[in-house]
Amino acid sequence: MDRVEVEYKGKKYVRHGHDWYSSIGEKTPELQSILNEKLLAHENEKLWVARLNDQTLVFDKRIPPSGEIVTFWYLEKDQFINLERDHARSNSISIQDQAQKTKILEKYRGSSVVRHRLKLQTMGKEYSGVRYSANKVRRETNCWSCKSPITSENLPECVTCGWILCSCGACGCGRSDQLWQD
After folding, report:
1. What percent of the chain has pLDDT over 70?
2. Structural domains of the chain sorted by starting position, each given as residue range(s) with its CATH number in brackets
């Protein structure tokens, strides 16, 4: 888990799991909602929301561009698309309406596809995409990472390992005990 740190009223606080602690290790439940709001505002600074023709796009600064190609999350299809930087810059219109922007960013954060890509990135692994299985056999299991129950019904799977994506973003690529790993 990444260390999450927020400053509030001149003091630093650290999040461990869902709880916040002062710099000297004291649990601070009374500041939980305030610190979560500050963290969300900080994370929103890394995101840009725009319309390009009939597409709603989110640009995340944590996903590095590849030369002149920039990666966006395409809301209507819950997938990533690559666009030329100049084309995206000159033809997109930034969404200014705060309520609309908030709804879009909630969907972005709730997307297992987005969480999957960011999780792979933090592990230093290449993102190859996701697919929806044509296999009609329903698979049921538990996520190895967060232990939540998952099924193959309406959930994508990782192109690289073939595992079902969990809502936390985990797939089989992060497992260290895979028999088929090099």
Report:
1. 95
2. 4-43 (no CATH), 47-110 (2.30.30), 112-182 (no CATH)
